[in-house]
Design goal:
The complex is a heterotetramer of chains A (about 550), B (about 425), C (about 250) and D (about 375). By secondary structure, chain B is of the alpha/beta class. Chain B folds into three domains: about 25-145 and about 290-365, Response regulator (Rossmann fold, 3-Layer(aba) Sandwich); about 150-260, 3-Layer(aba) Sandwich (Rossmann fold), CATH 3.40.50; about 400-430, no CATH class. Helices cover about 40% and strands about 20% of the residues of chain B. Chain B has a seven-stranded mixed sheet with strand order 7-6-8-9-10-14-15, with helices on both faces. In chain B, α2 (about 45-65) runs parallel beside α11. The N and C termini of chain B lie far apart (about 60 Å). Chain C has about 250 residues and is α/β, with parallel strands linked by helices. Chain C has two domains: about 1-85 and about 220-255, Rossmann fold (3-Layer(aba) Sandwich), CATH 3.40.50.300; about 90-205, P-loop containing nucleotide triphosphate hydrolases (Rossmann fold, 3-Layer(aba) Sandwich). In chain C, a hairpin with a 2-residue loop joins β1 (about 15-25) and β2. With about 375 residues, chain D is mostly helical. Chain D is globular, with a radius of gyration of 22 Å. The two termini of chain D are about 35 Å apart. Classes of the chains: A mainly alpha (about 550), B alpha/beta (about 425), C alpha/beta (about 250), D mainly alpha (about 375). The interface between B and D is large, with 67 and 67 residues.
Chain lengths: ~550, ~425, ~250, ~375
Amino acid sequence: MKSSTETPVAHATRQDPSERVMYRILQILFVALCLLISTHVVGLRAADDLGALVDQLGAAKLSEMDERISALAKTGDAKVIPVLEALGEGELYQRKSDGKVFLVKAQGADLLLVDPVTGTEAGQAPKAAMQKVKVNNAVRRAVRSALGGLTLFSDDAGARLKAAQSMLQTPNADALEAIETAIAAEKDATVRRVLDEARAVTLLLSERGDDEKRQAITLLAEGNGRNGLAVLTSALATADASLKPDIEAAIARIEQTQALWSAGQNVWYGLSLGSVLLLAAIGLAITFGVMGIINMAHGEMVMLGAYTTFMVQEVVRNSYPALFDWSLAIALPLAFLVTGAVGFAIERGVIRFLYGRPLETLLATWGLSLILQQSVRSIFGPTNREVGNPSWMSGAFDLGGLTITWNRLWIIVFALAVFAALLFLLKRTSMGLRMRAVTQNRRMASSMGIRTPWVDALTFALGSGIAGMAGVALSQIDNVSPNLGQGYIIDSFMVVVFGGVGNLWGTLVGAFSLGILNKFLEPYAGAVLGKILVLVLIILFIQKKPRGLFALKGRAVEA
Amino acid sequence: MNIKASVTGAFLAAVLSTTAFNGAFAADDTIKVGILHSLSGTMAISETTLKDAMLMLIDEQNKKGGLLGKKLEAVVVDPASDWPLFAEKARELVSVDKVSAVFGCWTSVSRKSVLPVFEELNSILFYPVQYEGEESQRNVFYTGAAPNQQAIPAVDYLMANESVERWVLAGTDYVYPRTTNKILEAYLISKGVKPEDIMINYTPFGHSDWQTIVSDIKKFGSAGKKTAVVSTINGDANVPFYKELANQGVKAEDIPVVAFSVGEEELAGLDTTPLVGHLAAWNYFQSVDTPANAEFIKTWKAYTKNDKRVTNDPMEAHYIGFNMWLKAVEKAGTTDTDAVLDAMIGVSVPNLSGGYSTMMPNHHITKPVLIGEIQGDGQFETVWETPGLVVGDEWSDYLPDSKDLISDWRAPMSCGNFNVATGKCGGKGS
Amino acid sequence: MNQTIGQTKPTSLLYLDGVSVSFDGFKALNALSFVIEPGELRAIIGPNGAGKTTMMDIITGKTRPDEGQVFFKGGIDLTKKDEAEIASLGIGRKFQKPTVFESHTVWDNIELALNRRRGVFATLFYQLTAADKARIEEILATVRLSARRDDLAANLSHGQKQWLEIGMLLAQEPELLLVDEPVAGMTDAETAETAVLLKEIAKTRSVVVVEHDMGFIRELGVKVTCLAEGAVLAEGSIDFVSSDPKVIENYLGR
Amino acid sequence: MITSFLMKSLDRSILVVVAILLGLAILVPALNLLTAPDHPLHVPTYLVSLFGKYLTYALLALALDLVWGFCGILSLGHAAFFALGGYAMGMYLMRQIGARGSYGNPLLPDFMVFLNWKELPWFWYGFDMFWFAALMVVLVPGLLAFVFGWFAFRSRVNGVYLSIITQAMTYALLLAFFRNDMGFGGNNGLTDFKDILGFNIQADGTRATLFAVSALILALCLILTSAIVRSKYGKVLVAVRDAESRTRFLGYRVEHIKLFAFTVSAMMAGIAGALYVPQVGIINPGEFEPGNSIEVVIWTAVGGRGTLIGPIVGAILVNGGKSIFTAAFPEFWLFALGGLFVLVTLFLPKGVVGTASAYFARRRAERRAQTGETPDNLAVEPIAAE
């Protein structure tokens, strides 16, 4: 099977460069035409060759892969698509015995083989008998660009959009005609827009005339994409003298738009950091802010919440993989219960003996935090645990010139939701009323028939439970390790103190203003110096307002 | 009176219990090996594995009959990621427990902290982690990679295979990234890279909010030249960094990240599917396909009773270092420090990637350099490998003040910082 | 000097004019004005929240008024000074809740209150002189605590703590003494004795007493000011004030 | 005046501890240097350094006790003062290396050489002279405490708020010293010291001397703090702790009272740090860790705050325990440590010494009641609830 029959590709590789360009243009036009008429016919004609071409992938060195992939792509055969996709995913294997290449799927310890040409199953083979077809980034790039060309005419708009985006990201002058053909046929406006941009980008790399290029430059300047900027910058070096002023103007324009957007982007980053701070601090706003316990074990509650998420995902992964996207929703109430229960136990076991001695709660809870950390280390091991992002929390989307990642967006939403729920609980429910009564005047509350010990324990459990829920969210952006909580404890105290102890709104405003401040300082001062500056500002601020942003005024506080 | 009694009582109790306790470890007919890795605190995440690996290696050796007819005995202490405590514990291991050699440390600062102790008490330390170089000490054997065994080949690979022209050097702000980046900067400029095509960024330990930096990297990468990130970001900060990369859609095909501190252990805490194609440079990968490695992995999984445990480069470094030490002790016929120090140089043992590693006169070892791409299963796939072994270069040729220095611990030179320009031992000389 | 100062100011010991202060929108004092003459003993009554304690806070510098003037001994503007300065000027204050240094002995409490230099180094190298000793003995006798001089203040009864605090104020040698509810929680015998004590003290200085206990005030037999909603409602003898319909409605009636 | 000030400090329990410290200062070096290593009474050098380290910790705890135990200021910034003193000493020791560094640069420390620093930053000038470094050991922490305290106490930042902002200060310093651009060696800090005042820092004799000096200085500081606490100023301190506004209304400038104690305490912490560095051989930003400050608080609490001997005993007990447990139960010692903190706060709120002395005071009182003696002053003030 290895002997290759004479293929057009073999010709192409032997031709000199200028001929090759011509040939490629013709080839693409031909392919596009054929595809428009009937992909079927081409497929049949090339079926035999295809198998040989695919098999060649197995024998190729990494440096030869580029060529082989474009040879495959040039067949224009739709069957090539799954083969290339598998190659990119690392699911293409070569049988050691005869060198034949298969698509594989893991099936227990063995591999399930699928014939690349016919798409039919071809039995199983032990892993040892197969060798993976090597891929590296260069190969993946080649695959992506080849796939872009092949799926540009797919029936599925989503696939076309993906193809257009990949052509936009990895522009290739050879694909220009194909893109133009695709634009002519495209009905979907979104895909069309991306294609237009891809065409402009590609055109700049091509040998087309200056007028067309100028139009392309104008188009790119109006967008705000970074892809445009990259192409324009590199085109600047090689472009004709006549084009240079246009390109420079376009670059200036894009950079200007980007500078504007970057302020917005900073606000977004600040909000996002603020939401993380809010999540980390909000449980503390209860245990420290409302109850006055200097709860150094607060970070460990967050950590326990994150480990609960890990446990839930383990179970889901092993037993109900279909539910993976729901794993966080399952983890939330569980984390609340687990950390709430731990908090309850801590309050009953230790803290209730320390009311009225706030500084001593610091010592005891510090001891507890050491114990909790080491327990987790003993049970789960000291290394990071994997907590996956469900699909709805992965990736990003563009909003104008802003890149907004889904996980950050959801975390902001979640932080605000937790805040709202907590506010409602404290201000609008009888439980909240009792909590406030007990923390404000214990003796009075107990003489009114409130079971103060019970309320104390529940309040602490509530604060801990909320910290646990924060842990679920933080597991999505940070390490899940025994040290997780340590990273948040100081920041949390800063937020609560800055915002004003005992005031939930203060915590909210404090978290977001510190987050935004931090993110605006970071580009100028760097991450470390920015953080130092924020700390110094907090220290100075406390001098001005010793009781934080939203301090309660009047003599009641000082009594 | 009473207070006096209670105070003196308490103080004496403390003194006595310490001495009595230490007495309990009095020497008998075993050879003791000290293990100085943090089991708590921030570094436990990386170092605990190495402690387990050492215990396994010692266990295996005892099954084979020990050393010089004696059993090996591991002495484990916990320096708790507290650097002065490292020095205290090192002193305790050597002068109280009388260990013959110590395997330990991870961070540069812990190594710096124990250096004077090993020098003063004349004992041996095996240091298994890739580090910044710029050091060669008589009592220390460096079994991890020097910058030329990791960083420079990785950059070479990116230049040759990915035609990278623009570089982001991102690191945690401590001495290893600082030095490595200084070396890389000098190296890149010597290769014709323009200074404006190099962006250097430092972040604090455990940095968790990478939004701004990742977007800066994206922006830097959109200047029309192929861009790559060389990451010397330390342990804990990597997970949020990679998560942010994945979420902001920085794909390996567009802006590859090559890391020097990210191994199988670190990836175990991540879903690596979006990271496929990002790179790491090490001297060993778990995926290396050799019989020795297969055996090692099997033993490791059996020892830890966990089928999911991974192996990594520093474990291999301990494997090499430990075997070298065994061989040197056998050669010397004693565990006496001076004899072993002499016997160590030139000792050659098989490594796990199919070759031999040799202890060089500068107390660094020869290693192959592997470049691997991250795979969906949390493993690396080797995409490139140095044709031969690379000798660890303790004094970098790319730093102005160290390019004239060499180290050779054989008599008669016996010097860790010999200046070839002045012909004197001791740096530049005054 | 300020033109608007009334003619009472130069002669009076304490002069408040149009003092207002509010906390979070709640007006604790509403254009309060009143005057204390040298050597006067004055009782102040009023319902809870009338602004009695706030008024004391303002005189002693704990709270700054939003508007209004507070002058001491004619020309000293108290609104520009802090607690320690005001205390050094000669205004002593007794809190509602007896506040003594519980982990010091009765003797040390008085010694700390003694009107001597109060700087860091002065106290660091302070030596107890015979004169100081005699003065402390004298005060201890006045507040009837000589026998308990070496006991910790924490071990005193409630009434004794009140006296100790009064003793501390005497040691401070103030010209004006502000006393907040001195007989709250005292037995009748203690209350009577306290009245005697205060009258004795008032011989050498001005005293302002805030109290709820009408019997006690009647026993003092001095001019009474009734505050309500942060302003003066009525002023005069106890009989005059207690027959005022506004006072009855606001305070005594319910 | 000064002598009578100091004489007042020497009550019985303090005298006993001072005598023990002076005894140790002679005995331990003697047993280390003059006895043969196999002699049953020989104290190995390892233990000399270890005990020397404990003594510096004890001094740090004593410093904290002056502000926390007697004035109620729970400072979470004492690790910072300790580290600053340590850095001042470390900079002196670095300059002493001279041309013996790896690169043989006579002026620049190694870490500056390989990071391509061309000249010595200005703030390193003067540290080649011991007297200057010694001055800085007290001045830098003292000045920081003075400035910080001046603002904080004037603004009446109190209780938990003060604790949190002192922690913020420590954390900011931690981050700052981590930065390599600061010129303090970044994460690695200062290390590889060669000698101090011309003596080899690794020699047994130097170590024994450092131990003796630590014991001596601890004894001196104990006498000093005792004198402060027993003066009228000390009574004012306790008065501020128990009833701050009462003290204020008596005419005391509470902010000055606090500021003096805070500054003196920071200076003592700086001295402790300076003694610590040559004995452990390294100073790095890890010493600024907020956790370290909390640990100091815990030593003090374990020993008994508001007693002068308590923090010394607490520091030695906890650190001795840590030394033993980290070797004996490397996997589980944190449980023991954490458990200790919880149990002490729950069951020994006055700490070991506080509880013991309360017990003996009760016994004495009972005996007195039988014999009808006159009472004498209690050696140790009890702690009032906050």
